[in-house]
Design brief:
single chain, about 90 residues, 5 helices
Length: about 90
């Protein structure tokens, strides 16, 4: 189970890095670790059966509250759909 969870976190992290990236790191070296904490939380949400809308909302909350950015609802929804496909 731990191995599967780790793989899921890695898959989630890859999706966040490639398709979400609200601070625009775009494959910079710092990006490799930047979204890991978010990926761990999203993987847990997926394991608990979170919906696309719940994941989308969480991504938007992080954009607004953790990054002080305007949330991009369309991007968050698109990424949440990709993330649901991870599980």
């Amino acid at each position: 189970m731990l191995v599967q969870m780790k793989r899921s976190v890695t898959e989630v992290e890859n999706i966040l890095n490639e398709f979400w990236d609200p601070i625009g790191l775009e494959a910079q070296a710092a990006q490799l670790e930047e979204y890991r904490g978010f990926a761990i939380r999203i993987a847990a949400m997926l394991s608990a059966g979170a919906s696309e809308s719940e994941i989308s909302l969480q991504l938007q909350i992080w954009e607004r509250e953790d990054m002080s950015l305007k949330a991009d609802e369309k991007r968050a929804l698109r990424v949440s759909k990709l993330l649901i496909g991870v599980e």
